[in-house]
């Protein structure tokens, strides 16, 4: 691992339309000791061609061209070839402030932590890198110590984002997520909310992180997101991280496990409503949703939601009888 170098993993799948903004933001970085690892995950557009053009003549770029395996698979492939002291993830349809790496690197070095976090701003599809204006902010820096407190701030208090991309990590610590029972960094069986599961696995092992509420990452909210799409059984993947966290946090981090159960109940309630609106939802899917609701609704202390739960459960039971 090269001291001071930041390995940046960019998982790319059919993002040719958005790459120019990302490329420009990388070229303008004030901190130059970086390596960019582009993982083309089976794109069918000209994503790979654009990556090759950007990387031509640059010694700090690596390109991995692989069959489509999903976001977790692409990130794992990038981590496997990372050589820096630190690790960062950027989604290539997003872009970053020119000071992104400089600020996070200085924070992680100054405060001697395993992770540095900044703030992010959600932008619309038609917002571009050149539209960035200096934010009217008075940034403050906060350190958080102890695995339990860090997880509380992350999972429960929402002090900082649950995404992986507005942070840099000490690579050595990330690699420790792998063990005999977990031979990977990102769980490739999780297709949604994989960021939350990864951050839980990482943060539960660290002693201190540093957070600065300065906007340095620009997250593009694209139309057609799965969050706004019609229900399908694949959306049950959104609940997988909850089950993983509940199982692993129950003993050592009970408040986190409770939070995961609350989120599971809310998620199951929303997905159940969507599933009931769609004709032809299969019996197995409806049963999984009903079980998730019944097992975790007691963790939701809200009268309106409980009434909604009773209404949804009644409809689920009725639908199941007729399936």
How many discrete structural domains?
2
Note the beta-strand portion: 15-25%
Look at the structure and give the mean pLDDT.
Answer: 91
Pattern of helices and strands = EHEHEHEEHEEHEHHEHHHH
Oligomer: single chain
How far apart the termini lie comes to 57 Å
By CATH, the architecture of the largest domain is named: Alpha-Beta Complex
Structural class: alpha/beta
Give the number of helices.
11
Helix content bin: 40-55%
> In CATH, what is the homologous superfamily of the largest domain?
Spore Coat Polysaccharide Biosynthesis Protein SpsA, Chain A
User: What integer value in Å does the Rg equal?
Assistant: 21 Å
Number of E-type strands: 9
Task: Give a short account of the largest sheet.
Answer: 9 strands, mixed
Shape: globular
CATH fold-level assignment of the largest domain: Spore Coat Polysaccharide Biosynthesis Protein SpsA, Chain A
Structure description:
Strands 1, 2, 3, 4, 5, 6, 7, 8 and 9 form a nine-stranded mixed β-sheet that branches. By secondary structure, the chain is an alpha/beta fold. The radius of gyration is 21 Å and the shape is globular. The mean pLDDT is 91. The protein is built from eleven helices and nine strands. β1 (2-12), α1 and β2 (34-41) form a beta-alpha-beta unit. It has helices spanning 19-27, 47-55, 71-80, 100-110, 147-156, 171-175, 194-203, 240-249, 254-277, 283-296, 303-322, and strands at 2-12, 34-41, 61-66, 84-89, 95-96, 115-123, 141-145, 167-170, 208-220.
Summarize the structure.
By secondary structure, this protein is of the alpha/beta class. The chain is 41% helix and 20% strand.
């Amino acid at each position: 691992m090269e001291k001071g170098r930041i390995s940046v993993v960019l998982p790319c799948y059919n993002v040719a339309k958005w790459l120019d903004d990302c490329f420009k933001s990388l070229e303008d970085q004030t901190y130059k000791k970086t390596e960019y690892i582009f993982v083309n995950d089976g794109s069918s557009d000209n994503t790979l061609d654009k990556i090759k053009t950007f990387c031509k003549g640059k010694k700090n770029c690596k390109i991995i061209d692989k069959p489509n395996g999903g976001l977790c698979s692409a990130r794992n492939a990038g981590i496997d070839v990372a050589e820096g002291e630190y690790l960062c993830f950027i989604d290539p349809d997003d872009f970053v402030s020119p000071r992104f790496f400089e600020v996070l690197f200085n924070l992680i070095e100054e405060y001697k932590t395993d992770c540095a976090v900044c703030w992010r701003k959600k932008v619309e599809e038609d917002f571009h890198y050149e539209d960035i204006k200096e934010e009217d902010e008075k940034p403050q820096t906060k350190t958080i110590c102890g695995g339990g407190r860090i997880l509380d701030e992350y999972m429960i208090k929402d002090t900082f984002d649950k995404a992986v991309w507005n942070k840099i990590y000490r690579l050595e610590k990330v690699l420790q997520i792998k063990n005999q029972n977990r031979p990977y960094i990102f769980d490739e069986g999780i297709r949604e909310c994989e960021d939350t599961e990864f951050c839980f696995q990482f943060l539960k092992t660290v002693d201190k992180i540093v957070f600065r509420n300065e906007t340095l990452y620009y997250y593009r909210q694209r139309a057609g997101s799965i969050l706004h799409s019609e229900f399908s059984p694949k959306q049950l993947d959104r609940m997988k991280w909850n089950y993983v966290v509940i199982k692993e946090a129950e003993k050592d981090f009970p408040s986190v496990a409770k939070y995961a159960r609350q989120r599971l109940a809310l998620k199951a309630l929303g997905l159940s409503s969507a599933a009931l609106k769609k004709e032809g939802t299969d019996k197995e899917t409806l049963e999984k949703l009903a079980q998730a609701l019944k097992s975790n609704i007691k963790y939701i202390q809200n009268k309106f939601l409980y009434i909604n739960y009773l209404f949804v459960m009644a409809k689920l039971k009725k639908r199941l009888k007729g399936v």
